[in-house]
């Protein structure tokens, strides 16, 4: 892996391909989004049969993982006792903050270079597929 500050387009596409392969093994069609560390969309895919809303949900989860440099599940756990605050943050970020399980950060040489989010399965399936894709692509989760 190149130790760049952000993922290149080709690297983002490779992450999507790895995620597609993992999702296919699981037998659950999903959508996947790759964000840069600032939460800008780099690449997006919706597999045949994935729910239509899953592209938006995958982007929100990936944005959240990129924003915090941690799995989106961490924000879910943090926000559960504070639903009003979670709603306020979602509103302030124009709907991007999505504190739900299903996205992981992407690190290269200890540096946050992006995030991969998924939607279409259970939250845990989404996160497991994303984590496996990140690892298979030669990146780390922290």
Automatic annotation (TrEMBL):
InterPro entries: GlcG_carb_metab_protein (IPR052517), PduO/GlcC-like (IPR005624), PduO/GlcC-like_sf (IPR038084). SUPFAM superfamilies: GlcG-like. It holds the Pfam family HbpS-like. Transmembrane segments: none annotated. This is Heme-binding protein. It comes from Modestobacter italicus (strain DSM 44449 / CECT 9708 / BC 501). The lineage of its organism: Bacteria, Bacillati, Actinomycetota, Actinomycetes, Geodermatophilales.
């Amino acid at each position: 892996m190149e130790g760049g500050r952000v993922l290149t387009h080709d690297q983002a596409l490779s992450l999507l391909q790895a995620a597609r392969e993992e999702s296919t093994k699981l037998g659950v069609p999903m959508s996947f989004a790759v964000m840069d560390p600032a939460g800008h969309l780099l690449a997006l895919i919706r597999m045949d049969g994935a729910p239509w809303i899953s592209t938006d949900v995958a982007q929100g989860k990936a944005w959240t993982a990129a924003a915090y440099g941690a799995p989106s599940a961490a924000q879910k756990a943090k926000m559960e006792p504070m639903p009003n605050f979670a709603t306020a943050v979602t509103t302030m970020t124009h709907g991007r903050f999505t504190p739900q399980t299903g996205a992981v950060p992407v690190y290269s040489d200890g540096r946050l270079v992006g995030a991969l989010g998924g939607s279409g399965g259970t939250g845990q399936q989404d996160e497991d597929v994303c984590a496996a894709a990140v690892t298979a692509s030669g990146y780390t989760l922290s």
